[in-house]
Records
---
Amino acid sequence: MSTQVTEQEQAETEEESTHQRRRLEEKAERQEVRDRMRERAETDLEQADTVFDLKVFRYDPDIPEKEEPRFDTFPVPFTKGMTVLDALMYARDHYDSSLTFRHSCRQAVCGSDALFVNGTQHLGCKTQVVDLGDSEGVPGQIRVEPLPHQEVVKDLVVDMEHFYDQMDAVEPYFDADELPSGDLEEQRQTRENREKIKMSSRCIWCGACMSSCNIAAGDNEYLGPAAINKAYKFAMDDREGEDRKQERLEIIEQEHGVWRCQTQFSCTEVCPKDIPLTEHIQELKREAVKNNLKFW
């Protein structure tokens, strides 16, 4: 019996030793890759015609020595066509693999890389570094922070749950009174109506408008420009059922709906898809007024 226990303990010890050795080897490999990338960065900096400083907000609540917010600065060699997202990826790949930010499509469609760049909301993949430079297009220092007015999860990543809740609050789905009788018949829409709501359908749920809105910053229950724009898309669709449109107007004309907007145009200014958000909010205000007019 004791022999079996001893053999089992020995096997466990050997397994633990093997596991630890594997972890050390993997750690050494990662360090080798980091060293190689840093050497490559040094070469890139020597050969580059222009180098700019990328100043990035850092915060990691899971690591005691990093839970105090700070800024790290990375020298980045400028290349033609470089975007802010490209610069962040260069810093992550060549200097610090723990640098955390969201990105996906890199085509200004997914909306995942909305950032606060040099004091303004931008999409990282759409913002050219050269546009942030001086009159000759030479970048100096670029400061990148997470979207304001939202809880920071880590580095440049913010918690989007509240934003999604506000979008869901306007019930963003189409609901017609009647559907076409034929299985293959389309739900037709006039060209004029399509043109009217076309811009509102371009929203990519990036949250830049919500982050720029001073009202949303002070009123956590305010629906916000993105959600109200989504309500506009359906309320103004002539295929929407009348009863459903009435219900949607009741949602957006509540205390924390369209009437909280103070027409500051900040949301319109930062929208990466050029949606006239303030205009849509004002039109919904007019619809809400007409909806409550009584003639007798």
---
Amino acid sequence: MQAGTIQQLWRYPVKSMGGEQIDSAKVTANGITGDRTWAVRDTRAGETTSAKKIPALLTCTARTVGPPNENGAFAVAIAVPGGATISTADLAEANDALSELCERPVTLEWLRPADDVDFFRHGPRDADAARPTIQEIMGMEPGDPFPDFSGLPRALAEFATPPGTFFDAYALHIVTTASLSEVARLTAASRYEVRRFRPNIVVETPAGLTGFCEFEWTGKRLDAGGVGIGVHAPCVRCSMVMAPQPGLERDRPALRALVEHTGQNFGIYCNVVSPGEMRVGDSVTVG
């Protein structure tokens, strides 16, 4: 079945920071090359962190600089609030600037291999007295039901991110223009923009597909350009949806609409089942 075409491709060089739109992407088993290959580590908590816990990270925007080196690593430039730019070429300067922004000691870390399991573990529960609750992380209000977390990897009980990745859960995140239009309809007073949802792929859907149509693709295979994609589960959304970022103010209705209408889900989590390349304009089919 024709699902549409690729309208947008996004890469996020640093976990939880704004990303960059790209015209084409090489995709491996670990997702789009250069996506989330850096992350911020909270040295006080002893773990990889994100904007779920430190919302200030979303006020930064990261972009890759030049081609990858012989180890596949991209250099990254980060625009921070106030107009300055820091770089992975000077980690000491970057760490100082990010620690000041986050109001706690942090370091910018390159992705480790999966067998470095200690690096990926959650920090000790008592390492940071300011650690937010799950309700705060998810942006829940009193009386909200807990979202369905059954589609998330079980490894997340032990690890901050799946070992060998800086992804929240899976290698790819996809949304459709149909679902973006639906959430815009439900939150007419909001400035909902696609950047709030941080997808890797935006699929422009044909007129016959409406609403949150991608939920129906769960368990199926997508073929996008030369890449085979397995749809694993709807994506559970958290407080990051409503957090401010460059050009976007805090927007509570953006998350509340999802709580009320989709069980707090938006978009789909996916794995790569057949690596390859994709580009804007490629067709997307559902098998």
